[in-house]
Amino acid sequence: MNQYLFMEYMMGLRAKFAARVAPSWMVFCVDLAIVIFSILLAFALRYNFEIPAENFKKILVVSTIVVLVKSLIFYFIRLHTNIIRYTSIRDLFRIVSATLVASLILACLDGLYYLLSSDKYYYTRLSVLVIDFFITTSALIFTRMLVKLLYSEWHSNTNGKTNTIIFGTEELAVSVKRALDLDPDSSYKFVAFIDTGEHTQNKKLEGVDIFHYKKLDFVIKKYGVKALIIARTQISSALKNLVIEKCLKQGVKVMSVSDVKSWLNGGVDLRKIRNIRIEDLLEREPITLDVSEIQKQLSNKTILITGAAGSIGSEIVRQICNFSPYKVILLDQGETPLHNLELELNEKAPEFKIEYILGDITNPTKLKHIFENNHIDVIYHAAAYKHVPMMERHPAEAVRNNIYGTKLLADMAIKFKVSKFVMISTDKAVNPTNVMGASKRIAEMYCQSLNEFGVTSFITTRFGNVLGSNGSVIPLFKKQIENGGPVTVTDPEVTRYFMTIPEACQLVLEASAMGKGGEIFIFDMGKSVKIVDLAKNMIRLAGLIPGKDIEIKFTGLRPGEKLYEELLAKEENTIPTYHPKIMIAKVIPDPFEVVVQKVNRLINLAETGDKMEIVAMMKEIVPDFKSHNSIYRVLDVDKKAKMQVPFSRVEKN
C-alpha cells in the first residue's frame, strides 16, 4: 500500500513539474550569475589564478561594465523568455549571437578608452574578453541543455507507454520523435526507426536503433510494437501500403504526419499526427497535370458546374479555383449541401466570383434563365442519380434526371454556343447491367451525337467508384463499425475499382483540356479491390479484429449489381493518350437523327411510369444492356426467345 502511495506521489510530482515553467526573472538572474562567474573566471585564468592586489579595483570595474552590457543585450534579445526545457538549435544560435555582440561592444568600449586616455593603454586585455566570451557561451548552453536533459529523463518513465516505431530517418522523423518526447502527455515510447536505405543500417538516431523496412516483422515482435508513425516526406504508395498492411495484420496502430511543410518549417503541431485512413491505404502515385493547357481552357472563363454540391462537383469547384476563372456558377438541387459549400468557399476562396444557384437540371425555364444571363464557356455536368438499387426501383426518375436533364443541358449548350461540355459518366455505362448504368450510357450517346454540329465540343469522362463519395461503401462501413457492426458486404467475391475524389477530378480537368470533341475518356483505375478485404482493413484501422470484435455479414448481390466491374483499360477497346492514366474508348457515335428520335420516345414513355416498358425501351437503345439480379431479366429472356424463333413463324404471327 505504501509503495502504491509512493508511486502515486511521484506521478503527481512529475505532473506538477511538467506543468511548471520557470519564471523569466529567475532565468534572467541565473544568466547574470553565469555572466559574473564567467568574467571572474576569465581574469583568474588570465593571471594563472594569481591576481595581483593592485588589479582588484580594475577587475571590479570591468566586471561591473561586463555585467551591465551583457544584461542589457540579453534583455533586449530576450534570452530569458524561452522555455528552457524546449531549447532548440535556434535558441542556441541566439545565445552565441548575444554573447558575441556583447563581447564586440566591450571590445569597442575598451578601444574607445584607449583613444581617450592620455597614456594610451587598454583598460582590459583582449585575451580576457575572448576567454570570457567562450566561458559565458559554453556555460549558458550547458545549463540549458542540462535542464532539457534532466527534464527529458524525469519524464522518461515508460511504464504504461506504447512501444512505437517511426518510419523515416529524415528531419521530419527526428522532429516527430523530439516533439513527442517533450510532450508530458505523450504515451509513446520510441524503440526503433525504420528506413529503406542500406547506409543507415546498424546505426543509431537520437539513441534509437535504425532497422531496414524488410525487418519490420522482426522489429514488431522483438519490441512488442503497438504503434507506427509514418514520418517521411517522400514514400511510394506501394511501399506505404506494404508497411500499413503488415502492421494491420499484427494489430499495430498506424499513424502519419499531415501538413509536412508546416512541420519542416518549425510549426510542430502534435494534432497533425493522425490515424491512417482507408483512403491512405488505397491511394496511388500523384498525378502529373498539364497545368498550362488546363489554365488556357479555364483562365478568365465563365464555368457552369451542375451537381456542384456533390462529392465530385464540389471537388471540381475547389480545383478549378486554382486556374483563375472569371466566374463559376454552381447549380445544385440540394439546398443544405449547396449552403454548406457556399460557407466553405466564402472562407477559403473569398476573392473568387462564384454564383450559387438552387435549381434542377430538368427545369428548362431555370436553365434558360441561367444561360441567358451568363456567357458560359465551359460546362462540367456532374449532376446525376447514381444509386444502382434506387434507380432499379425508379427507372422513370433515372430517365428524367440522367437522360432528360442531360438532354436539356446539352441542347442549351448548343443553342448558346458553349465552347466545351464535359459530361461526368461512370464505368457502369460499359455493357450496363442496371438502369443507372444504362441511363448514363444513353446520356453519353446523346452528347456524342450532338458533337457533329461542331458548335460545342462534347467530351465524356468515365471512371469507377470514388472513395468517400456519396453512395460509396466507405461511409457505410465507417458507420457500421462505429455502431459495433455487423459490416455488410454483398458477396465474398465482389470486387471494385477505387479512385480518390481529388484524383478523379484532376483527370477530369486534364481530359477536358486535351479533348477536341466527341471523345469518351476513360481513366486507369489501378487494381481491383475485394470489398471484403476493404471491410477487414477498415475494421483493423479502427483497432478491432474482423470476425471477433466486428462481424462481417454477406447479404447477397443487390438488383442490377455486378460481381466484377469491367476493366475499361483494355488495349483492344481503347486508344492511348499522352497521359498514362487517360485513354479514349473506341466507341462509334450514332447519328443524331436516330439517337434523338429514340431518346424522345424514351422520355415520353417515362411519363407513363410503366417500368417494364421504360426499361424495354432502354434495352432497345442500348443493346448491350443485360440486367443482372433484377426483375428486368425477363425482358432479356423474352428478347432472346424471340431471336431464336424461326423467321417464318414470326412472319405468320
Written description of the protein model:
The chain has 653 residues and is an alpha/beta fold. It folds into three domains: 2-154, no CATH class; 162-276, Rossmann fold (3-Layer(aba) Sandwich); 291-464 and 498-523 and 566-621, Rossmann fold (3-Layer(aba) Sandwich), CATH 3.40.50.720. The chain has 24 helices and 22 strands. The strands form five sheets. The protein has a nine-stranded mixed sheet, with helices on both faces. Strands 3-4-2-1-5-6-7 form a seven-stranded mixed sheet, with helices on both faces. Strands 14-17 form a two-stranded parallel sheet. The longest helix has 29 residues, at 126-154. It starts with a helix and ends with a helix. Residues 1-19 and 645-653 have low confidence and may be disordered.
Biggest sheet, open or closed, and with what strands and sense? 9 strands, mixed
The total tally of domains equals 3
Give the radius of gyration.
36 Å
- Name the structural class: alpha/beta
Q: Order of strands across the biggest sheet?
A: 10-9-8-11-12-13-18-22-21
Strand-residue fraction? 5-15%
Low-confidence stretches: 1-19, 645-653
Query: Number of DSSP helices?
Result: 24
End-to-end Cα distance, whole Å, is 99 Å
User: Given this structure, which CATH class of the largest domain is correct?
Assistant: Alpha Beta
CATH superfamily of the largest domain: NAD(P)-binding Rossmann-like Domain
pLDDT averaged over residues: 79
The CATH architecture category of the largest domain equals 3-Layer(aba) Sandwich
The overall strand count is 22
Helix content: 40-55%
Any idea of the CATH topology of the largest domain? Answer: Rossmann fold
Shape estimate: elongated
